[in-house]
């Protein structure tokens, strides 16, 4: 019996020793793999700790290291560990681009460096690539990635805005103008300039021409020069409001687009408590402008665009609206209803992209049936800003440089009824303690029986 116990004890010690050895080997292998191969999963709400695909694409545009200099103290009275916050934020970008070099300078301990850099705020960031620099005073993906977009552009893109006929002003502050849209374009490297035929006889082919809802008749000679610009391969954004075309019918004919009279009426807008004359863009075509675009857009007082089939232009519908609505050709007074004889049933095409090849260069045109959708008063509705930015980027040949919008945080509130709260309280305060007590008594009784 004693010999058996000794053999049994020896075998048990061998088994225990072997288990410990295997466990240590396994721990060492896992540690080695963890050092050599790093894998991360973002389990946060709405993937807030990961970069959007747009930001990843922008990082891949850089062919060298990017320097990030942060002028921040060790602690901030309001934000606390501001260096830690910025370091954690930049580390998400460094996973994609390891040569994103982050440096910190304390503006209090090194005031001369901060002064020479023109730093005014604690936590100000200077991003440098080759000989270009961008500054940031806020830290979020939208601001940081848009700063990278500006650095990645080799030069400012020019926007020529037709003026002299009551067009919407890109630097205007009225509700009708497009000043807010222009500010966003400046953030990603576009520069708009008003263009008038009284100042320049010809439209320079150095950027994108924007025709934003003229209010007075263009002269015949002005229209001819716009057609000449188009014939030479110039890119164009044409925002067309309802009503007369003010001499631009030849432009529509050259583009092969029929602009029907009337206003799009969308009954779905009523359900969202906005006027039915505010058509909701919910259907988008397969195009670079609308790729992965799933926002609702709002087109107030928009008109229908019908691209005709022709061998000159390739057209793609960017947005359709009012699948349950129609084009109202009658007066917009009283109760508006569909007239089978005069009105056109939806869905209605309201934005079109066209392209063709002119002298071995791709020419791009976008026509939208509402200038209101980019106006100051309506730009903040739905995805209007995103769609407008994507249109401009595509026209500039930079469709990969799309606008980066902040991620929406999903509502994390948990609302419970009185009954649910009572059940939870009963479960945690009464039921669970009773279960533990009964389990303990049962285990004690079972051991005594043995």
From TrEMBL:
SUPFAM superfamilies: Class I glutamine amidotransferase-like. Residues 156-382 form the ABC-type uncharacterised transport system domain. Residues 45-123 form the DUF7088 domain. The keyword Transmembrane helix applies. Keywords: Membrane, Transmembrane, Transmembrane helix. The chain crosses the membrane at residues 16-35, 421-446. The keyword Transmembrane applies. This is ABC-type uncharacterized transport system involved in gliding motility auxiliary subunit.
């Amino acid at each position: 019996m004693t010999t058996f116990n000794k053999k049994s004890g020896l075998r048990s010690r061998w088994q225990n020793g072997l288990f410990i050895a295997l466990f240590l080997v396994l721990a060492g292998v896992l540690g080695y793999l963890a050092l050599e191969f790093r894998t991360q999963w973002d389990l946060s709400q709405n993937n807030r700790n990961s970069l959007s695909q747009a930001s990843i694409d922008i990082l891949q545009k850089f062919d060298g290291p990017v320097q990030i200099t942060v002028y921040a103290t060790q602690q901030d009275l309001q934000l606390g560990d501001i260096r830690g916050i910025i370091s954690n934020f930049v580390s998400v970008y460094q996973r994609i681009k390891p040569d994103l070099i982050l440096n910190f300078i304390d503006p209090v301990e090194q005031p001369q460096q901060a002064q020479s850099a023109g730093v005014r705020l604690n936590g100000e960031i200077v991003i440098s690539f080759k000989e270009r620099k961008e500054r940031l005073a806020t830290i979020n993906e939208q601001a940081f990635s848009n700063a990278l977009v500006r650095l990645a552009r080799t030069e400012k893109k020019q926007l020529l805005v037709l003026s002299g006929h009551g067009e919407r002003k890109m630097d205007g502050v009225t509700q009708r103008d497009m000043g807010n849209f222009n500010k966003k374009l400046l953030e990603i490297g576009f520069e708009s300039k008003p263009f008038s035929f009284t100042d320049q006889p010809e439209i320079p082919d150095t950027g994108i021409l924007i025709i934003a809802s003229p209010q007075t008749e263009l002269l015949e000679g002005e229209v001819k020069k716009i057609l000449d610009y188009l014939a030479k391969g110039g890119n164009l954004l044409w925002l067309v409001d309802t009503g007369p075309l003010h001499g631009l019918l030849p432009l529509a004919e050259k583009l092969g687009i029929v602009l029907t009279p009337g206003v799009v009426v969308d009954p779905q807008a009523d359900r969202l408590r906005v006027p039915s004359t505010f058509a909701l863009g919910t259907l988008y075509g397969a195009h670079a402008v609308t790729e992965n675009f799933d926002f609702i857009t709002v087109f107030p007082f928009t008109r229908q665009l019908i691209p005709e089939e022709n061998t000159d232009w390739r057209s793609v519908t960017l947005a359709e609206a009012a699948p349950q609505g129609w084009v109202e050709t009658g007066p917009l007074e009283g109760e508006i209803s569909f007239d089978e004889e005069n009105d056109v049933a939806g869905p209605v095409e309201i934005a079109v992209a066209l392209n063709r090849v002119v002298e071995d260069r791709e020419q791009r045109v976008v026509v939208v049936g509402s200038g209101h959708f980019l106006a100051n008063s309506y730009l903040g509705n739905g995805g209007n800003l995103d769609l407008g930015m994507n249109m401009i980027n595509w026209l500039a040949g930079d469709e990969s440089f799309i606008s980066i919008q902040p991620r929406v945080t999903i509502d994390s509130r948990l609302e419970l009824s009185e009954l649910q709260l009572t059940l939870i309280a009963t479960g945690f305060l009464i039921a669970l303690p009773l279960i533990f007590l009964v389990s303990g008594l049962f285990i004690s009784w079972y051991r005594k029986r043995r």
